[in-house]
Amino acid sequence: MADRAQPLIARAPGRAAAGLVLALVAAALAAVVWRAEPGRGMGPSDWAAVRFTVVQALWSAAISVALAVPLARALARRRFAGRNVLVSLLGAPFILPALVAVLGLLAVFGRGGWISAALNHVGLGPLEIYGLHGVVLAHVFFNLPLATRLLLQGWQSIPAERFRLAAQLGFAPADTFRLLERPMLARAVPGALAIVFALCLTSFAVALTLGGGPHATTVELAIYQAFRFDFDLGRAAVLSCLQIAVAGAAGFVALRLTGTEGFGTGLGRATRRWDAPGGALAVLDAVVIAGAVSFLALPLLAVVASGLPGVPGLPAQVWRAAAVSVGVALLSTLLMLALALPMACTAAAAVARAPGGTGANTGGGAIELAGLLGLVASPLVIGTGLFIWLNPVVRPADVALGVTALVNAVMALPFALRILVPRACEIATDHARLALMLNMAGWHFLRRVMLPRMRPRIGFAAGLTAALSMGDLGVVTLFADPSRGTLPLEMYRLMGAYRMDAAAAAGLVLLALALALFWALDRWGRGDAEA
Amino acid sequence: MKYLAFAAGVLGATAISAETPELTVYTYDSFVSDWGPGPAVEAAFEQTCGCDLRFVGAGDGAALLARLRLEGARTEADVVLGLDTNLTAAARATGLFAPHGVAADLDVPGGWSDPDFLPFDWGYFAFVHGTDITAPANFRALADSDLRIIIQDPRSSTPGLGLLMWVKTAYGDTAPEIWQGLADNIVTVTKGWSEAYGLFLEGEADMVLSYTTSPAYHLIAEGDDTKAAALFDEGHYMQIEVAGKVAGTDRPELAEAFLAFMISDAFQSIIPTTNWMYPAATPEAGLPEGFDTLIQPGKALIVAPQDAPAVRDAALAEWLTALSR
Amino acid sequence: MLRLERARFCNGGFLLDADLTVETGRIVALIGPSGAGKSTLADGIAGFVPLVAGRVLWHGRDIGAASPGARPVAMVFQDGNLFGHLDVAANVGLGLRPDLRLSAAERARRDAAIARVGLSDMAARRPAALSGGQQSRAALARVLVQDRGLIVLDEPFAALGPALRGEMLDLVAGIAAETGATVLMVTHAPQDARRIADQIILVTGGRAESPRATADLLDAPPAALRAYLGD
């Protein structure tokens, strides 16, 4: 009856994008199953792998997010010199290629690392890092920064006006936590947990290397084994579906726990906090920040220290590969935005339809779950499936870079959506009435309101995707073209040729470029005063 | 006019390149890398063949075979280079390979007589260590020592699988015992050789599973003589890397010419200091200086290619059981 | 002429009934106890709350099913009237064209409206840099350029001081007089109604009554209004 002529936000493009992701994953899985020869099926070792995978991912997610809460809180309420640089640097571990990060971590925490050396001085044995705790340590190193950024944006979503109100009402920090921060965390934490969990599910080289033995076999390694060692494509597909099921269940639970109601409209005043008194709390925040910085920065420093001497002597191929990688990263960022922005807007459309803010946001959940698929379906299976499709049509090497960019974009989608969707919903909630009254539906609303207001988030998501794509080994080594290797591939080649010093230097170049891309895009997003 | 001349030039160029036959060789990635044998081999072969040699890199030997199986008879590969004897039985079973037809006098320990696959290099697996430690003389001594070792996962790495086969051929039914003894020496198990060797050089372990030829790299390329391989008295397991001609190739003569070239001096002399393995046919000039310092195993161990798949699966099950405890 | 013909609006579970007529060019205040349905009536006329029965007619045309943007209504909300990331000029310009591609003539109209509300010096400022009164002025400038026949105010000036509120009300009355618009304003202050409203619609217990002359109603309030006014 009260049908509206034009909806505020069209849902079709986002649904099409989500459908595309679904189709990509389904087509890849179908191709793998289609080419499968009879295999031995799932064995007890595969189930052990599923168990270990879930256990380590649970621990990793729980600890990453638990540590991220005080860190994000300290960063949200403190202003200090270098804070922005620090927030940018928080992206660094997350985007490091696994191997570089593991070497950096071991330089600090390994048997031959700095801490072990210090322990030796006082007559204690070396630190034993290998085992479940080592896997979790590495995953926390990778994901603490991401979790912190996700929670930090939760804090930023509380309008400055609310903190002002809290200050006016004389809230103690405990009151602020109870009345403003805890409700925000109740919404932000499940999503962050689900993302970190999904990310740790697909971990493979890190889990194996730091796990200390075959008991640290993850599902992704079992997939790799099925594909490479047994050529049992059927089992690879089954394992991949199991991985999807586990991640899907986690994602579903998380989204059920995550409401979407915002804090109402703020006018975008720069967030000033009045609830950050000095004294014990200031010391606590300082300790939290300093602790996190040293935990995250020391391995990075090790990467820099071991790579720096080799940089001037790096062969030309490495620089060429670096250029290729930057190109792939930018392309995959564009592809990610082409998928993620319509999807985020569609998620927000559900909110916009009920301008009173009474509508529950179920559409957004389905969209985010679709986005999760690409990450957890196993890059190896996606790559193999695409290979089976494309090989009869084109030379794999000719499409290597395009496919790499596409797969990287799809893998980055869950992070991008976690960053974009909540903000898109807030904007829709806050501005739907005004925009509808102004007859500003569809494209004009997106262009004039949605996109400008989302800019900081778009910048962050784009930076993350670009950096992630830089560091990715190219899920599709299947497609590899020897003459146009990416930087991580070139780094592995250097290692394979015993040139560990040059590889360390290439790793440093990779880190620097990934950080530069991340910083530039994130910075572009925050260019607007309101961030 | 100018455009016409340009077009003629382009067409002419196309015509010429269409006449130049292209030979596609699938190989593992580190072979084609700028630091591997690939570039030098390509240049040397193209000088004589009047063809365009195109390398396509795909992971390691096992990934190479997986890719070939994915492509099946439609593969554009003319030659596949970089399988080893653990894989040749499975490769042969695909029916994708044809006899190489090359008669050769090879220096591979134990001799060579496979009609389908032709070796291009070989090596012994060994534990590499710094010269500051006293290396054990066999697996039992290693298991009894406090030495810490890093090995590779047999499911994801060629050397890892080599070690599995090594222990199995040396100890047969008592192999699980050896693995149980080694369990407390193993610092960690990595995905591939690169990770393991990198960790070893970072000081994470006393020894790392690699090749007897590894110290040659440090000596020749870096002038560093502090790395050595431990000589085990059970003997050392061999890796023999081979190439084969794809049955469906549309350039059979060129493929055979490449295989013949592969065991000639021009190719073989490139191998030692790029692939850091022993050439399958020792070049006339001999091995590079420094290779004479390497340990010489008293006994070369290897599982016959046709038995490899069965041995492999049994050994993997034992390994998983022993180390998962 | 705005005609609500046995109209029933449904806001969540809350129902509001109205059967009344507002003559063109009038300024009409909606007064009633909190929760009686003033805002539901305003939202229903603007199209934010669905009409579940009856009709809403504007000059005889049924607008009950039209989307908010397609109705002849310019509305000013309690808050959230301006986009925080856009400056005053853009916020006002949106009233002319949602895509902001303004012709020279439209730019001139926008600037005239901004000048009319006295914000010429602040056209390039963003809302965060404006005072509350200035924000209200910017929203009114947009109402001016929207040039819709019906202006609906949902207590936009409630947060302003008495003097400033009076100023804003006068501005509204001026705009209405200049454009010939009909004004519906939700308010809880009888003095606001006395200041500019010709008539009052009393809203109590889910029912909106027909408009009555302001002075008549306030001088001799019926029981329900008396209870609300508290005298």
The SSE order of chain A reads HHHHHHHHHHHHHHHHHHHH
Number of domains of chain B: 2
Mean pLDDT of chain A: 82
State the secondary-structure class of chain B: alpha/beta
Principal-axis shape of chain B equals globular
- Element pattern of chain B in H and E: HEHHEHEHEEHEHHEHEHEEHHEEH
Q: Considering residues with a beta carbon less than 8 A from a beta carbon on another chain, report the largest interface and each chain's count.
A: A-B, 55 and 58 residues
**Architecture per CATH nomenclature, i.e. the level-2 architecture of the largest domain in chain B:** 3-Layer(aba) Sandwich
- The CATH homology group name of the largest domain in chain B: Periplasmic binding protein-like II
β-strand amount of chain B: 15-25%
Task: Supply the number of helical segments of chain B.
Answer: 13
How widely separated are the two ends of chain A?
Answer: 40 Å
Number of strands of chain A: 0
What features would you describe in this structure?
The complex is a heterotrimer of chains A (531), B (325) and C (231). Chain A is globular, with a radius of gyration of 23 Å. Chain A has 20 helices and no strands. Chain A has a domain at 1-34 and 311-531: MetI-like fold (Orthogonal Bundle), CATH 1.10.3720.10. The model of chain A is unreliable at 1-5 and 355-361 (pLDDT under 50). Chain A starts with 11 loop residues before the first helix and ends in a 5-residue tail after the last helix. Chain A is 73% helix and 0% strand. Chain B is of the alpha/beta class and 325 residues long. Chain B folds into 2 domains: 17-122 and 239-291, D-Maltodextrin-Binding Protein, domain 2 (3-Layer(aba) Sandwich), CATH 3.40.190.10; 123-238 and 296-323, D-Maltodextrin-Binding Protein, domain 2 (3-Layer(aba) Sandwich), CATH 3.40.190.10. Chain B has helices at 2-19, 29-32, 38-49, 61-71, 88-93, 139-144, 158-171, 175-182, 193-201, 214-222, 252-262, 265-268, 308-324; strands spanning 22-27, 52-57, 79-84, 97-98, 117-130, 149-152, 186-190, 207-211, 227-229, 236-246, 278-279, 300-301. The radius of gyration of chain B is 21 Å and the shape is globular. By secondary structure, chain C is an alpha/beta fold. Helix content of chain C is 35%, strand content 25%. Chain C contains 8 helices and 11 strands. In chain C, strands 1, 2, 3, 4, 5, 6, 7, 8, 9, 10 and 11 form an 11-stranded mixed β-sheet that branches. In chain C, helix 3 (104-116) crosses helix 4 and helix 4 runs parallel beside helix 5 (162-179). The two termini of chain C are 34 Å apart. Chains in contact: A-B, A-C.
